[in-house]
């Protein structure tokens, strides 16, 4: 027997609140904070030193912008002094915790993943890329079936009246998984907003498509009447996330219930 949506939402909210409490565990660790502060002042974590962390007395890098000194494959990912300091301090602190028998904790809201060739969360990137590939394969198969295997109308359009709606769904799905892969590759403000905005757009359109398909809405005027208020709500919510507050709780509840 499935739980009612109310209890699912309540469970999600409780889990999210527990996650928020745990999210600051690593940040509040005194040894981690001392390490980050020392790295930003000296440019070194232990024996590892970063050229772009060398600052003069007025806070300006003595050797020029950090992005001119990084390897090419790292430049576009914006690994700056603070990011490198936090990452290496996190890795060293987790090694110390593991030696003492403690489990991993979150740092700045994220689990301590190890970078691979500058990719922040390689496993998540791989799964997002696989989802993107499968959605592309599904959309391409649907396209070939409609326009090359089934008969068409005289104006070269498909007989299936919901074809265009499913094409849009396929494109939104591929867009969502693409930005998911980019976001997990490098978490910066821009990639975060693009990822969550794409996910919200896909969820909103999925609701619209589900209503149109379930009630077999074929008339264009009726479709507009159903779509317009929902589209306005989704657009407003995306603007809220991008320009006011990126509320992870609301996003998590919407994804879980959907």
UniProtKB/TrEMBL annotation:
<protein>
    <recommendedName>
        <fullName>Post-GPI attachment to proteins factor 3</fullName>
    </recommendedName>
</protein>
<dbReference type="InterPro" id="IPR007217">
    <property type="entry name" value="Per1-like"/>
</dbReference>
<feature type="transmembrane region" description="Helical">
    <location>
        <begin position="160"/>
        <end position="182"/>
    </location>
</feature>
<dbReference type="GO" id="GO:0006506">
    <property type="term" value="P:GPI anchor biosynthetic process"/>
</dbReference>
<comment type="function">
    <text>Involved in the lipid remodeling steps of GPI-anchor maturation.</text>
</comment>
<dbReference type="GO" id="GO:0016788">
    <property type="term" value="F:hydrolase activity, acting on ester bonds"/>
</dbReference>
<dbReference type="GO" id="GO:0005789">
    <property type="term" value="C:endoplasmic reticulum membrane"/>
</dbReference>
<keyword id="KW-0333">Golgi apparatus</keyword>
<feature type="transmembrane region" description="Helical">
    <location>
        <begin position="224"/>
        <end position="244"/>
    </location>
</feature>
<keyword id="KW-1133">Transmembrane helix</keyword>
<feature type="signal peptide">
    <location>
        <begin position="1"/>
        <end position="23"/>
    </location>
</feature>
<dbReference type="Pfam" id="PF04080">
    <property type="entry name" value="Per1"/>
</dbReference>
<comment type="similarity">
    <text>Belongs to the PGAP3 family.</text>
</comment>
<feature type="transmembrane region" description="Helical">
    <location>
        <begin position="125"/>
        <end position="148"/>
    </location>
</feature>
<dbReference type="GO" id="GO:0000139">
    <property type="term" value="C:Golgi membrane"/>
</dbReference>
<keyword id="KW-0337">GPI-anchor biosynthesis</keyword>
<keyword id="KW-0732">Signal</keyword>
<feature type="transmembrane region" description="Helical">
    <location>
        <begin position="194"/>
        <end position="212"/>
    </location>
</feature>
<keyword id="KW-0472">Membrane</keyword>
<keyword id="KW-0812">Transmembrane</keyword>
């Amino acid at each position: 027997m499935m739980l009612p949506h109310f209890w699912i939402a309540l469970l999600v909210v409780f889990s999210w609140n527990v996650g928020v409490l745990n999210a600051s565990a690593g940040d509040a660790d005194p040894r981690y904070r001392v390490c980050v502060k020392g790295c930003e002042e000296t440019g070194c974590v232990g024996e590892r030193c970063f050229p772009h962390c060398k600052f003069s007395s007025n806070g300006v890098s003595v050797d020029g912008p950090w992005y001119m000194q990084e390897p090419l494959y790292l430049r576009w990912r914006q690994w700056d002094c603070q990011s490198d300091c936090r990452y290496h301090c996190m890795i060293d602190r987790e090694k110390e915790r593991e030696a003492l028998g403690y489990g991993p904790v979150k740092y700045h809201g994220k689990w301590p993943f190890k970078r691979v060739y500058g990719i922040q969360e390689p496993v998540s990137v791989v799964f997002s890329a696989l989802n993107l590939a499968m959605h592309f394969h599904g959309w391409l198969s649907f396209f070939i079936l409609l326009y090359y295997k089934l008969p068409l109308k005289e104006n070269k359009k498909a007989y299936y009246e919901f074809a265009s709606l499913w094409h849009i769904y396929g494109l939104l799905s591929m867009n969502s998984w693409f930005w998911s892969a980019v976001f997990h590759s490098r978490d910066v403000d821009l990639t975060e907003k693009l990822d969550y905005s794409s996910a919200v757009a896909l969820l909103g359109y999925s609701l619209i498509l589900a209503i149109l398909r379930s009630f077999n809405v074929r008339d264009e005027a009726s479709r507009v009447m159903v779509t317009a208020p929902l589209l306005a709500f989704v657009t407003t919510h995306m603007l809220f996330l991008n320009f006011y507050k990126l509320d992870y709780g609301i996003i998590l509840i919407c994804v879980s219930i959907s």
